Amino acid sequence: xxxxxxxxxxxxxxxxxxxxxxxxxxxxxxxxxxxxxxxxxxxxxxxxxxxxxxxxxxxxxxxxxxxxxxxxxxxxxxxxxxxxxxxxxxxxxxx
Length: 95
What we know:
With 95 residues, the chain is an all-beta fold. It has strands spanning 9-14, 37-43, 47-48, 54-55, 64-67, 73-77, 80-86, 90-94. It has a single domain, classed as 10 Kd Chaperonin, Protein Cpn10, Chain O (Roll). The model has no long low-confidence stretch (mean pLDDT 85).
């Protein structure tokens, strides 16, 4: 089984957060913010236009992105945590 995004949706995996500060202080999970960076795992076919054509997404599988802080829906599939976002929630692609 696999998750297939629809329309302008994408499935991403959050990148891990460093557990220590630059000064060497350990941060417990409760003190860490969830990262706003992720790796794109799968993209949908694009938004459906009124004429039946699709607008292709600007991000692709494998891209590293920055997204809005409260964006997306968290899902757990096969004991892995994913985030489903709309393309509009993506702020930038990191190159």
